[in-house]
Amino acid sequence: MKVIINGIDGAMGTILAGMISKAADMEVIAGVTPTGAEGAYLTLDAYQGPADMVIDFSHHSCTADLMAYCTARKLPVVVCTTGQDEEEMACIAEAAKSIPVFKSANMSVGVAITAKVIKEIAAKFSDYDVEIVETHHNRKVDAPSGTAIMLADAIREVRPDLHYNLGRSGMAKREPDEIGINAVRMGNIVGTHEVMFGTNNQTITVTHQAHDRALFADGAVAAARFLVNKPAGLYNMDDLLAD
Ligand SMILES: NC(=O)c1ccc[n+]([C@@H]2O[C@H](COP(=O)([O-])OP(=O)(O)OC[C@H]3O[C@@H](n4cnc5c(N)ncnc54)[C@H](O)[C@@H]3O)[C@@H](O)[C@H]2O)c1
Questions:
Q1: For 79-100, how does the pLDDT look when each residue is reduced to its tens digit (9 = 90+)?
Q2: Residue 243 binned pLDDT confidence (cut-offs 50, 70, 90)
C-alpha cells in the first residue's frame, strides 16, 4: 500500500513514517509539510504520483484542502488530526459520501476497547457514582483531555441522564447524575485515563495507560489496513473493532 503522510515531519508523522518503513505491506510514497523539509512536498496538490491512501497527522486548518485532494483523486484517508470546527467536520462528512474516510479523535485501539468495556459496565452495573481521572504531562494545554470526554460520551450513550461535572471545587457536593471529570498534570506522563464506578459496597476501575505516542501510529496503520478496500463512508474505531 502506497501511503502519503500529511504532516510528515511532525511528532506523529515522524513516528508513523518510521513505523511504515518497517511494514512489509506498506511504503511511504510521499510526505507533505509546509516547513520545506528535505524530500517532502509543500502541499498535497504538488504530489500527483501513485498512491493508495493518505494518513493525516497535521493541522485541522488544512481539512478542506485535504478532503478536496482525496476526493479528486478518489483516495481513502485516515484523519488523525484533531481540533476540527463544525465547518471542517461538515467537510469531512461531505467527502465521506464519495470516498472512505476514517476519523477518530483517539487512534488508540486500547482506548476504543476501554470505551466498549465502560459502556457495558455503565449499562449493567447499578447505583454507582462515576468519576474519570485523566493524567497527562505538564505541557498539555487543554483540560480535560479529548479522550476523557470521549470516554464520558461512551457512558452517556447508555446513560443519557448523566451530565458532566468538570473539575469539581468549592461548595460542590456530588450530585447522583454526574460524571465527574478531573484533570491531573505532572511530569512527562503520556496519558492515563481511569474510569471509576463506585457504589457503597464496591468499586470497578478501568484504567488505560499510554506509554508511548507510537500507540497512535499503530492505530493509524491498523485504520489504513482496515480502510483500503472499503466503500465510501465515514468510519471510526468501533467499525475497526467490529471488522
Ligand atoms: N487522533 C489521535 O489519536 C491523535 C494522536 C496524536 C496526535 N493527534 C493530532 O495529530 C495532529 C498532529 O500532531 P503532532 O503531535 O504530530 O503535531 P506536530 O505539530 O508535531 O506536527 C504537525 C505536522 O503538520 C504539519 N502541518 C501544519 N500545518 C499543515 C498544513 N496546513 N498542511 C500540511 N501539514 C501541516 C506540520 O508541518 C507538522 O509536520 C494534531 O492535530 C494532534 O492533535 C491525534
A1: 999 889 999 999 999 999 999 9
A2: confident
Pocket test residue of 9, 59, 78 for ligand 1, highest count of atoms within 8 A of CB: 59
Quick check: is 163 catalytic? no
Superfamily of domain 2-107+214-242: NAD(P)-binding Rossmann-like Domain (3.40.50.720)
Name which residue sits closest to atom 37 of ligand 1, judged by CA.
33
Query: Which residue ranges make up each domain of the chain?
Result: 2-107+214-242, 109-210
Quote the pLDDT of residue 105.
83
CATH of domain 109-210: 3.30.360.10
Among this protein's residues, is 140 annotated catalytic?
yes
Amino acid at 142: D
Q: Tens digit of pLDDT for each residue in 22-64?
A: 999 999 999 999 999 999 999 999 999 999 999 999 999 999 9
pLDDT score of 31:
98
Distance CA 209, CA 71 (A): 36
Round to whole Å and give the CA distance between 112 and 196: 17
**Separation of CA 136 and ligand 1 centre (Å):** 18
- Count of other CB atoms within 10 angstroms of residue 29: 17
Stated pTM of the model: 0.88
How crowded is the C-beta side of 9, counted as CA atoms within 13 Å?
Answer: 11
